[in-house]
């Protein structure tokens, strides 16, 4: 097959890597092993079906340019009508007269395949970049989430630390006056139960409980001789003792975290009929949190032992609260507190709390 050698030399002269095969099987094996850009085959050579080979090469080299060399125009006409060409690009070149056309076609095929390869490489790089970008986004997302979580945790820790410091302050007052020990915690618990039962806004419950716990924070400014006096106070002592809501308000106003509880601190001694202090507010003008704390405060003072008075029973406490509703306390809140026996609920629920040691309380 001298012609095959000539063809290989011709195409090799174009700077291409050329592989030759002398049978369909050999050609297909070589095509499976290496991707080809251009496949050139004689149409018919003895028993060799060149066009059959080109058609069969579609599976192993789908994008390659296929060229069949025909020896006479008749063969070209015959091949043009072969129905099995469908899907396969096959160019026909008459040998040897169209040698320059063959060279041109092969060059075109190589160029086309190079473009296809470049396009493939571009797509591969783009998808790699996209993958990297997605990984970076995921990483960024994770970092942001972690940082946010850390910040939230720090904020929570700070909030807890602040609360602990403030509760510590309230406990310091209680520690100074053994008769009020446990009182703040119980007032907070009663206030919370009453607020929940009275339909207080859920998102305000935490602040309300906090305010109830610290409602007497102003007692820090009351003289020990008055605060710790075991017996009843005289008029001047009462005047001084009644300064504690305003003193507490002044303290709370200096601590941003305490601002939401300022009404409970300042106005928990206001009375429904306007006879309370310090602002002589009347009825619903009194902040709701202060009205709730006032009832909890009064109930706990009655329900626990004091230095000069024994604790009253639940029934006695409830009777007094009912009698004073509308004069001292918000009648609707009293109805909830007494009607649902919230004093009993509290004792069952909170008796085991560490801050409730059963000591006496005061409601000054
Ligand atoms: Fe008070």
Task: Tag the structure with descriptive keywords.
single chain, 364 residues, mainly alpha, Rossmann fold, Hypothetical protein af1432, 3-stranded parallel beta sheet, two-stranded antiparallel ribbon, 15 helices, rod-shaped, disordered C terminus, binds fe (ii) ion
Question: Which helices and strands appear, and what pairs or packs with what?
Answer:
Blueprint: H1 2-12, H2 24-33, E1 38-42, E2 44-45, E3 48-49, H3 50-56, E4 65-70, H4 73-80, E5 90-94, H5 99-176, H6 183-197, H7 205-213, H8 224-227, H9 235-241, H10 244-254, H11 262-267, H12 288-303, H13 314-324, H14 331-339, H15 342-350
Helix pairs in contact: 6-7, 6-12, 6-15, 12-13, 13-14
This protein binds fe (ii) ion.
Tally of individual helices: 15
What is the assigned CATH homologous superfamily of the largest domain?
Hypothetical protein af1432
Question: How many beta-strand elements?
Answer: 5
Q: Could you tell me which ligands this complex binds, including any ions or cofactors? A: fe (ii) ion
Decide which structural class fits the backbone. Answer: mainly alpha
Residue share in helix: 55-70%
Strand order of the largest sheet: 1-4-5
Second-tier CATH architecture of the largest domain? Orthogonal Bundle
Largest sheet: 3 strands, parallel
Mean pLDDT figure? 82
The general outline is rod-shaped
CATH first level of the largest domain: Mainly Alpha
Distance between the termini: 122 Å
Number of domains: 2
Please report which band the strand proportion falls in: under 5%, 5-15%, 15-25%, 25-35%, 35-45% or over 45%: 5-15%
Q: Low-confidence stretches at least 5 residues in length (pLDDT < 50)?
A: 348-363
Q: What is Rg?
A: 48 Å
The run of helices and strands is HHEEEHEHEHHHHHHHHHHH
